[in-house]
Amino acid sequence: MGTLNGKAALVTGSSRGIGRGIAVRLAQDGARVAVHYGRNEAAAKETVAAIEAGGGQAFAIGAELGVDGDAERLFAAYDEHADSLDILVNNAGRTMKKPLEDLSREDFRSVFALNVEAPFFVAKEALKRMRDGGRIINISSFVARVAFPASVAYPSTKAAVDNFTRSLAKGLGPRGITVNAVAPGYTQTDMVDAVLADPEARASAEAASAFNRLGTVEEVADVVAFVASDAARWVTGQVIEASGGVQL
Ligand code: NDP
C-alpha cells in the first residue's frame, strides 16, 4: 500500500520536467494526481499515460498561469474531476536570464506573474478545497540564496516564494496543513537545456554541485514525496534544498 493512498494531489506544470517527475512519484505512492499543463496537452497526456501504466490514477487539466483568472480557471477544470484536495505542488515556473540593464518592465512582470503571483492565488483557491492535514509544497530554487547578477529577476521570484512558504505555514498550522518549499539545484529538464546550451556553462553548473553533475527529476521528486507524506508532518515553513549541495 502506498503512503498517499486515498489522497488527491495537484501538481502544476507536470506535463514536463520536474513537475512530471513529481506527479509520477506521488502517483506511485498512491495519490490520485491532477496533471496540470500550460500549453502542452500532449505531454500532459503522456504523463497521465505513464502514471496509468504504473498502475496509478491521474487526469490532465490545462490552464495558462500567470494571467488574470488563472487560478479560478485551473480549479474550475479540477472540480470537474475531484471534489477535494490534499496535496498542492506549485511547480510551474520559468527562468529569465537577463541582467538588470536588459530587463524590461514586461520581462519583470511576466516572470513574477508566473513564479510568484500564480502560486499565491493557486494556493488561495486550493485552500477552499484542501482537507485539514493537507500539504502545500512550493518549488523554489537554490538561486534564492545566491547572487545571480546575470538573471536578477528570477532569483528574486524564488526568494518571494520562500517567504510566502513561511508566512503561509504559520497561518495554516491550526488546520494541520504543512507548507514547505523544495529548492532544486540544476536539474536535467528542458529549462536547463535552454539555459545551459553553452557547454562551458553546463560544465560550470555541474561543477557547482558537490557531486559534480546535474540532478535528475527523480532526485527532486523523492524529496517532494517525503514532504507530502505523513512522515513529514512535523516539518513546516521550511525551504529544503534538493540540489546535490550546489554552491555550498
Ligand atoms: P520545464 O520548463 O521543464 O517545465 C515547466 C512546466 O511548467 C511545464 O509543465 C509547463 O507546461 C509549465 N508552464 C510553464 N509556463 C507556464 C504557464 N505560463 N502556464 C502554465 N504552465 C506553465 O521546467 P522545470 O521542470 O525545469 O522547472 C520546474 C520548476 O522547478 C520551476 O518552478 C523552476 O523554476 C524550478 N527549478 C528548476 C530548476 C532546474 O534546474 N530545472 C532548478 C531550480 C528550480 P507546458 O509545457 O504544458 O506549457
Automatic annotation (TrEMBL):
Residues 7-185 form the Ketoreductase domain. Keywords: Oxidoreductase. Pfam families: adh_short_C2. Belongs to the short-chain dehydrogenases/reductases (SDR) family. This is SDR family oxidoreductase. It comes from Streptomyces pathocidini.
